[in-house]
Amino acid sequence: MAHDSENEHVLRQIDENLKRVYQQKVEEDLPDRFKMLLAQLKEQGEGETHQ
């Protein structure tokens, strides 16, 4: 039984750590190069809708 409790504790820690890392990534700003590429795609898309 104690072994199951240890496993549950380890699994809970893994879960919490994965959630924390994911949240940190979600909150990061996009790199400038990626923002530039998105802006270029948006401009191309706007040009296509006006034609």
Task: From the alpha carbons, calculate the radius of gyration and give it in angstroms.
Answer: 22 Å
Total of domains: 1
Shape: rod-shaped
In what range is the share of β-strand residues? under 5%
Helix content: over 70%
Low-pLDDT stretches? none
Summary keywords:
51 residues; 2 helices; mainly alpha; single chain
Secondary structure layout:
Blueprint (H helix, E strand, L loop, with lengths): L1 H26 L4 H18 L2
Notes on the structure:
The chain has one domain. Helices cover 86% and strands 0% of the residues. The radius of gyration is 22 Å and the shape is rod-shaped. The termini are far apart.
Summarize the entry for a quick read.
With 51 residues, the chain is an all-alpha fold. It has two helices and no strands. It starts with a helix and ends with a helix.
